[in-house]
Structures are given as C-alpha cells and as structure tokens.
Amino acid sequence: MTQDQHLIAGWNTRNDWQNCLKQLEKDSSPEAWTKVFEEFFKPRLEKRYLSPIAILQEHGEFSGEGFSIMTILCSLIEFLESTYQGKSYKFLQNGERLGEHEYSSSKAVFISFLTSKSPFSEQFNEELATEFYKSIRCGLLHEATTKNDWRIRAKSSDERIICNDKKLVFRDNFESGIRKFIDDYCAELIQNQELQQAFIRKWCSL
Asked: How many CB atoms lie within 10 A of CB 91?
C-alpha cells in the first residue's frame, strides 16, 4: 500500500482527498463543502472516535469505561481545534522552528478549544481549561487516570459538562457538547472561506 492509498476518512484515501481538492478548485459552493464534510470530515470522526464511544456507552456497566470515553474525547479535541485553525503538530528538536501553520503546544490548543468553542466556552474559563488539561487530559493520556482528585461521571442532572467545585467531569454531556460543536462547525465551514482554507491545510497534512 502506498501513502496515497492510506485510509484517512472511512474508506476514503489520501488519493481520494486529492481528487476532492481538485473538484473544490472548480466548485467551492456551500453544497460542495457540505459534501466534503459528509464524505471526509464526518466519517473520520465517526469511525475513529464517536462510534467507538457509542459502543462503550451502550455496553458499559458504569464500572470504569468513562476513563476510555474521556481519553478518546481528549484525543479528539486537539484534532478538532487544529483543524479549525488549519495547523499541524510538530515535535521540535535540534533547534527546529515552527512553520507558519504549525504548533508544538497541545496545551494551548486545548485551552483555545475549551474557552472559545460553544458549548464549552460557556462553562470553561482559562483557569478551568488549564486544570482540565493538566488533571484530566494529561492524566488520562500519560498515566491512564485522572489526577488531583478529579472524577468522571456519566451524566449530570442539569446537563453541565463539568463541575469545578466537586471536581467532576460528565463524560456523556461532554460527548454531546463535542457533537454540538461538530454540527456548528459544519454550518460555519460551508460559508466561511477562511475556515475552508484552514480545513484544506489540515487535511493536506494528514
């Protein structure tokens, strides 16, 4: 299998993306971008992240699967925000410098997403977003556990995503918030040329 045959969105390959890009050069209408969203962006998210979460939710026993669900969601956040910004991650070494559309700080990307993207921005300020990154995201990805007494629960009674006072994050409400953001992003993407160029930069790097 060559690089161009690597799957990047469902059964779509890098070669399929390049063909899609050529079509966008001819037609960049909202209808064309809706097709891009439905055939590339949405399948990548569903197959790799959201469908596995749904399986865990459906077959879970409230006995710890929330750790897996939140780990998947934390992995997804960075992809969503870096796609929105049109940036690609680069690990710097030996005096390397970042290119114009590269980043090296996952922390900054996380905080940006949580503090600027609805519905998360209604519940997160920079301080809480930093605490989430440090105690939940880094704890889960580096040590397979939350840190500093944070706990994961399934749902809140009032649809809150996070409760800072009790140090609780609600996995299902968080996932619902991610799905809302994705829907809002689609509506914005099909109309916004700056977002479209950011999308193209990101997908050309995959």
From this structure: 6
